[in-house]
Amino acid sequence: MDKIEPKYLQAVELIKKAILQSQYNAIRLVNQEQLKLYFGIGRYISENSRNGFWGTGALDIISAQLKNDLPGLMGFGVTSLKNMRKFYEAWSELEDNSASALAELQNIDAQPVEIRQVQLPNSVGFPLAEFLSVPFTQHTRIIEGVKDREERIFYIRLSAMSHLTEKGIIKAIKADDYHHRGVLPNNFLTTFPDARSARRAIRAFKDEYLLDFINVEELDADDIEDVDEKVLENEIVENIRDFILKFGKEFLFIKNQYTVDVKGHTFKIDLLFFNRELNALVAVELKRGPFKTAYLGQLNGYLTVLDDFVRKPHENPSIGLVLCKSADKSIVEYLIKDYHKPMGVATYRTREEMPEKFRNALPDIEELKKLL
Fold it and tell me: Which CATH number fits domain 177-371: 3.60.10.10, 3.40.1350.10, 3.40.50.2300, 3.30.870.10?
């Protein structure tokens, strides 16, 4: 093929971008229409089944007849119809109560004739765009796994921003991401140049991470701390995609045992990342046991080296994270305030330390690897 002129390459890129954007919009609109349909059907089922208009086994009869009348119809089994009812009942507050917008049951001589399409209003403070972009299956898992309204909204936003699969949202709920975001012991408010950047950094990290891919037997095979930490590091590196997913979609993995030589001394950072949103290097130091005061001094030194010899001029100051087995948050917050480099201390749990009902709900490690 002859070499293509730059102006034609540019045209190809622009057309490709337009096509992909159009395809994305089409998928998004299909999802919106599906959610509105399911919301309307869920309301119809809720009003008739909860108020006693329908007898026992009504959904079985309706589902079977739908399949008979519409051969090849998918997604309208008994379980799906019940999930539509759950979906409506969980978010019935969103209904626009104007007569023209309600997906209400219309009656002529007491006979239902229509289920009208739902119009969901753009309520102040409610993330409607994110809500409508999340697939119905993920909505169902959120409703089943979370009861609190604000917590549900958190997982809807997380699912929308991170494009989480059904497995991904289940894992996020089991890891209790809602209660571990924004509570990392840190000194960001005093070390970042402005409060907005500091808050963004606080939201980027959790105070506890579920490392369910860790082989606990191998981790406990040796009592020598540095050997155990090497095993921990190897487990994370081998499962780096899963680790990054737990950190967040804006994290890029650079290298483990990242080496910097300064004035005849060698510094080795366990894990080095770059966060695109924060525009900063992120150094992670892994510790097998509980938090120790010395870890902050060690990490502070690594951040100094990174800022002086690795960081690019357009990048923000490097951020450090100690990831250890346990930590007293109150003492960490007391000690960390006198350091002038942005740092935080997080802990981790392994699969074996989760309640049994949560462990059983997680996918098998081999299944997880296939998904990734």
Answer: 3.40.1350.10
